[in-house]
Amino acid sequence: MAEGRQGPFDVLFFTRSLTGEFRASHVYLNAERVPLAEAYPDKNKMGAQRRSVLKALKASPAHVQEYFNTSSGANVWKVRLTDIRVFDDAPVIAPLRETDLRFTNVYDYSAWEGWDDLLGRARPLHATRVTPAERPRVKRFSVTRYRAFQQAELELAPLTFIIGRNNAGKSALCRAPWLATRAWLRDARLPVPLRTAELDLGESIRDLIYRGDLQGMELGAWLTEGSSPSHVKLGIAYDGKRNARQIISRLEVAHAGEPPESQVLPAWQTVKDKLAELPALDELARGVKLVTGLRALPERGARWDGFAADDVSATGRGAYELWASALEDSSDDPQRSEGLRLLREWAERVLLITPTLKVVAGRIDVSIKRVNSTFGAHLQDSGAGVGQALPLLIMLTLTRPKDQPWLFCMEQPELHLHPRAHPELTELLSSVATAPDGPWFLIETHSDAMILRARVLVAEGKLRPDQVRVYFVEESEQGGELREIKLNDRGTPDWWPKGVFAETQEEFLRLRRALGQRDAR
User: Which CATH code of 1.20.1070.10, 3.40.50.300, 2.130.10.10, 3.40.190.10 fits the domain covering 138-283?
Assistant: First the structure.
């Protein structure tokens, strides 16, 4: 360990664990990532600088601390020593107004009335900025004895596609991350919600378990580096009776560098109490967004109470209220204004339409017209594809960055769309997923054009091969089996399932044979 590599560091990365503790993990010296032990052989020196950061955080105004504690990126932060200021003779973390690269607007905390006064009176200790590092995510999940799968494991990327024939288990796998994280919610009533206002997953938990196996199923999730715990597994069985009551068979929690702690906790309340000790799991669970294959159209003349929906539902309900709210806020909110511009841009690019929303006498009216056309029509009178895709575009462009999920589990986003729109839809998802801290996408699809455009983006160097994952679900006597199709830097797959997306070519060859036979007569 070279003496010259010792601090002061450029950037200190520290994590807030799920129990609320702060732990330093690594530093950057001259733009090079270095483990703490290597950067600071003198632990006392390292500890003093780390303590100065934590002291600054604790001394910061309550508004700052509240932002850190509720932000989607608050579990992992990178803090420059130059980000600490002195205010009333105490060090504080006082971030400058930071531009969000996705929507070119400031973070919400900069709107706090006290910021100008604070920044005006504070004097730099070194300089000032605090920026969130990569937001915590689930990087991998596994299922055991779930639906059609005895066992399956899937690694996530910014764009992850699931392909396969009908009834192979694609939809079940696409919903697995959402299901696996429902028990993490503080207000969860059951480990697995079988029915919601818009979802019906079965009469009982037995319907979700592979061939009704009495051992039950297991759902596991592995978190990104720096998160604590590093993985969580939950086993769910049933009592074998007709009503199939849910029973927790096992809870396993592992922290980085430590052996997993596995417990048999049959009582759901006991499990809830255990998970409550890890509050960041609730935040992660709320960051998983399920979007089902059928999206809802707004009712003609639907009433609007002047407020945005609390959340856009799995079927897209609330999307048009979000749009109406964005229009109302756009005059004095640059973030909303930019989101509306992006909505129009992507609607024209993907759907070849210009959408318009008006609120008249408290009622929402959505109309569309084709690009370069003067004639418009109500959304209800337009093609099904537009009604299915427009809620997706609204969610991706008008949701504020701090409210964006970290993962969309998206079923057939191309539903009812002309094949020409499919590759443009991939372009949109790619641009959102690769933005700083942008949400990732797990996509169930039947579209060869979407997959092909992802391959093109890799070949063009716009996506790295590790930013795209493709999985094929095939059927066997044992149930569904999952196989990954890996892309190289030319966008070329290392293998391809026989006959998948070859139907058009097969029909063309059949047509040629038929015409040849006719001409030979």
Answer: 3.40.50.300
